[in-house]
Amino acid sequence: MEEPARYFENAFLIDCQNLILSIKYPNSQKINQVTLYTINQETDEKTKSEIPSTIRKNNESVTVTWTMTNNIKGQTYRIEW
Q1: I want to staple 68 with a disulfide (CB 3.0 to 4.6 A). Which of 8, 19, 52, 79 is the partner?
Q2: Domains of the chain: which residue ranges?
């Protein structure tokens, strides 16, 4: 699915113990960097997340994955590319 604004955002409506968030794109796509941010829902301020990513590449695609634990209601993450 294409996102013309080149971001995806997820806000937790309930507490969540574990979440795996991934983005996969073809090698032919010209993407310089994929970045995970935390978003303050009250101010919309975004801060680069310190959650480490795992990057897997093969001949056809690139997959970037983050594993998050103990997320609380209201916590928001955004992936930008």
Answers
A1: 19
A2: 7-80
